[in-house]
């Protein structure tokens, strides 16, 4: 359904999926620290099948991907060491999504998986004029949401060494105290990466299906 762009918005490798109708609201998909793997391309295809124009940029300049936790940690660490450069890639991708002929409306959604959720939260602050719906999948981040205008949906694992309950509660409190709408769900018996089918050590099919059911309903309500 989608297509790979070797030089997408921001200059990085990108995956774009357009709905069968040819047009729809835009949703930016930000990958986990594994890079822009087929799992996140599949997420774009699923969004497109439900009426959204979905764009997923590689946050890594060389389009790197890996299945190794050690390699992924090193790759993601480089992103966090270069916050401004990574922000520029995300902002360029968001602008590119807005400018696509297929994209309708002036508001977009953004979904971030794991480390991608950190950048999704940052984008909602950097572009409050454009981002009206944010979905973070097992990811938190320190942020000031007073300028944001988005509604937030979060999906979190019950047992997560990367995102303890205290971090999830702190994020929810920060969003709520800023007066933004927020709904967080915790999925019993799950661990980090439970929504990614290419992580068989963590994948939970039932929980992942519920993540998508809730996410699609949220995006349709916010971007209709």
TrEMBL record:
One of its GO terms (molecular function) is hydrolase activity. SUPFAM superfamilies: alpha/beta-Hydrolases. It comes from Sphaerobacter thermophilus (strain ATCC 49802 / DSM 20745 / KCCM 41009 / NCIMB 13125 / S 6022). It comes from the Bacteria. Residues 13-221 form the Dienelactone hydrolase domain. The keyword Hydrolase applies. Keywords: Hydrolase. This is Dienelactone hydrolase. The keyword Transmembrane helix does not apply. It holds the Pfam family DLH. Transmembrane segments: none annotated.
């Amino acid at each position: 359904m989608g297509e790979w762009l070797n030089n997408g918005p921001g200059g990085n490798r990108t995956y774009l999926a357009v709905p069968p109708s040819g047009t729809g609201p835009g949703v930016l998909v930000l990958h986990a620290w594994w890079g822009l793997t087929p799992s996140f391309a599949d997420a774009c295809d699923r969004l497109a099948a439900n009426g959204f124009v979905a764009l997923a940029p590689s946050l890594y300049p060389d389009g790197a991907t890996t299945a190794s936790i050690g390699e992924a940690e090193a790759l993601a660490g480089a992103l966090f060491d270069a916050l401004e450069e990574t922000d520029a890639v995300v902002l360029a991708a968001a602008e590119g999504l807005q400018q696509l002929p297929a994209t309708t409306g002036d508001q977009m959604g953004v979904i971030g998986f794991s480390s991608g959720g950190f950048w999704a939260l940052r984008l909602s602050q950097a572009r409050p004029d454009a981002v009206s719906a944010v979905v973070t999948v097992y990811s938190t981040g320190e942020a000031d949401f007073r300028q944001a205008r988005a509604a937030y949906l979060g999906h979190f694992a019950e047992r997560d060494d990367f995102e303890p309950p205290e971090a999830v509660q702190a994020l929810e409190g920060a969003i709520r105290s800023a007066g933004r709408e927020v709904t967080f769900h915790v999925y019993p018996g799950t661990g980090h990466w439970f929504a990614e089918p290419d992580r068989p050590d963590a994948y939970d099919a039932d929980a992942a299906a519920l993540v998508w059911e809730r996410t699609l309903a949220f995006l349709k309500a916010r971007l209709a």
